[in-house]
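Trying the structure run again after the queue cleared.
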Amino acid sequence: MDNIIVGLGEALWDCLPEGRKLGGAPANFAFHAAQFGFNACAVSAVGNDALGDETLKAFDAKGLNYIMPRVDYPTGIVSVELDAEGVPSYDIKQQVAWDNIPFTPEIEEAARHCQAVCFGSLAQRSPVSHHTIARFLDATPSTCLKIFDINLRQRFYSKEVIKEGLKRCDILKINDEELVTIGRMFGYPGLDMENKCWLILGKYNLKMLVLTCGTNGSYVFTAGQLSIQETPKVAVADTVGAGDSFTGAFAAATLSGMPVNQAHELAVKVSAYVCTQNGAMPALPRELTEQVKCHK
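Done. Tokens:
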């Protein structure tokens, strides 16, 4: 149970045009972190229904550790439509299991042995899960690396939740569209992209800020240093879960002691590979995963 990496929040099924795929950002993150040899765990909730059974069976088949209390709400589903470039749009069902994650003794125990946790804003749309995520973060060791992957979806976010996440995290992960929204929300829409990032990094005393810009590259801001990587051109199957794979790979590489620019480069390669595969949880090629194992 020691030194676990936790993906905390929504566990759900993405209903894609070609069929149903297991997903949810925290589960995707944990799955990819585990591929680099870390003890990773998805923490969420599923319903007392057939889809809940299917969720746990699917995690078992993927070999992913999980803490998933069963609750009296339906297991989460998301209708996903893809545009011509494979970019998804989402219809996220409400009043589902992951809106009602209880803070159980098992979840508290996971928090106390957590070396890194990734959480977002989506799972905090309901008071129950918002409270559980806050209690989890409070129960982690002082050395725990807290990653806030903002993950703005539809209208399921608030200024209060985002501000609280920024105050609690060490690393902020955000994309270019979310950065525009945050800039408007916090009253600095006139600043250019880089200056917004430097401002947020300093204002909230972050260790790192990771900005992804789709095909236009990605950036990692740390105190006095900026890492820039181009996005590789690949044949895109879909982009579902690509950002989560980036975060999982970046966290694994960072925890292994890899320098920021190398961790960034690896994360870009991993997310590019995931874009070439259907669904959010493909197995990664060994030449990618071994880069971290060799470094550890």
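The radius of gyration is 18 Å. Worth checking whether this holds up in the mutant runs.
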